[in-house]
Design a protein that fits this description.
Layout (H helix, E strand, L loop, with lengths): L2 H16 L7 H13 L5 H13 L4 H4 L1 E2 L6 E2 L4 H11 L3 E6 L1 E10 L4 H4 L18 E3 L4 H11 L3 E5 L5 E6 H9 L7 H5 L5 E3 L5 E4 L4 H8 L11 H9 L8 E4 L2 E8 L4 E8 L6 E2 L2
Helix pairs in contact: 1-2, 2-3, 3-8
Pfam family, one: NMB0537_N
GO cellular component, one term: plasma membrane
Protein name: Magnesium and cobalt efflux protein CorC
């Protein structure tokens, strides 16, 4: 499309918007938003957020859910003390409560519901199964925008996702959907990650902060080393390959003389790592 025709089309969009005329379709609306950003009518963050709104209308829960293998659950027969230990380790606000295995979820436990019992000196405390909230089950091919509406209308924050055979395949939370719109909702390490102007930064304690998406070639060049040749392109990919799963925060692994500790990760990617030099030469997962 020529620049003149693009200007004409943009002018037409703006004219329609100013006169209160609705766009004909989503494509035209997206063009109007892009044009508004190009003209500095809206900022980049606003454009990104609006684009995220379009994105959730295209995706299914199976695209964004926390996979079954990464679900943190609490057994229905767990004591209050055992449940508190799990919550302290993982830091989530809600947990599926299971009976036998992850295909048998009896409800959702809210971490805040344990507080009165955690600080109580009473000996006869209830087991976790007495504190669960009702379970919401949704199909894996449910649209994300429909799920968000259901979250809002019914005022719950977590749902169990099942496949066509009724087997549990994952979890979805309202946070997972909001992250598509506004970006990752992070923790205390996010500010540290945002300040990195380079992929690899040396810290005062002789460790290094490394972005997960740092190319392996860049890592090898920086440290004058050669990481094992596997079918991955980034440092995050190498760590995932070495561990055999997508790691959570604080997991670590040693690879060819370097210890990699995960500082920040979502259920979709490893974002920030701490690296220290050591003398190991093979994969060795840390306890």
């Amino acid at each position: 499309m020529s620049s003149d025709s693009l200007k004409t089309k943009s002018a037409h969009f703006i004219n329609r918007l100013l006169h209160g005329i609705k766009p004909n379709d989503k494509g035209e609306l997206a063009d109007m938003i892009k044009d508004a950003s190009d003209r500095d009518i809206i900022d980049d963050d606003t454009e990104s957020m609006l684009s995220g709104v379009f994105e959730i209308s295209k995706r299914r829960l199976c695209d964004i859910m926390i996979p079954r293998s990464q679900m943190i659950t609490i057994d229905s027969n767990s004591s209050i003390e055992d449940a508190v230990k799990i919550i302290a380790k993982h830091g989530h606000s809600r947990y599926p409560v299971i009976c036998e295995d992850k295909d048998h979820i009896i409800g959702i436990l809210l971490a805040k519901d344990l507080l009165p019992y955690a600080i109580s000196s009473e000996k006869n405390k209830p087991t976790v199964d007495k504190l669960v909230h009702p379970l919401v089950i949704v199909p894996e091919f449910k649209r994300v925008d429909s799920m968000l509406k259901e979250f809002q209308e019914n005022r719950f924050h977590m749902a169990v996702v099942v496949d066509e055979f009724g087997g549990v395949c994952g979890l979805v939370t309202i946070e997972d959907i909001l992250e598509i719109i506004v970006g990752d909702i992070g923790d205390e390490y996010d500010d540290e990650e945002d300040t990195l102007t380079d992929d690899i930064i040396k810290s005062a304690d002789d460790s290094y902060l490394i972005k997960g998406q740092t190319p392996i070639e860049a890592f090898n060049d920086f440290f004058k080393t050669t990481l094992p040749k596997v079918d991955v392109d980034t440092v995050a990919g190498m760590v995932i390959h070495a561990l055999g799963h997508l790691p959570q925060k604080d997991e670590s692994v040693s690879i060819n003389g370097f210890n990699f500790k995960v500082l920040n990760a979502t259920h979709r990617q490893v974002q920030l790592l701490q690296v220290r030099k050591e003398n190991l030469t093979t994969y060795q997962e840390q306890d």
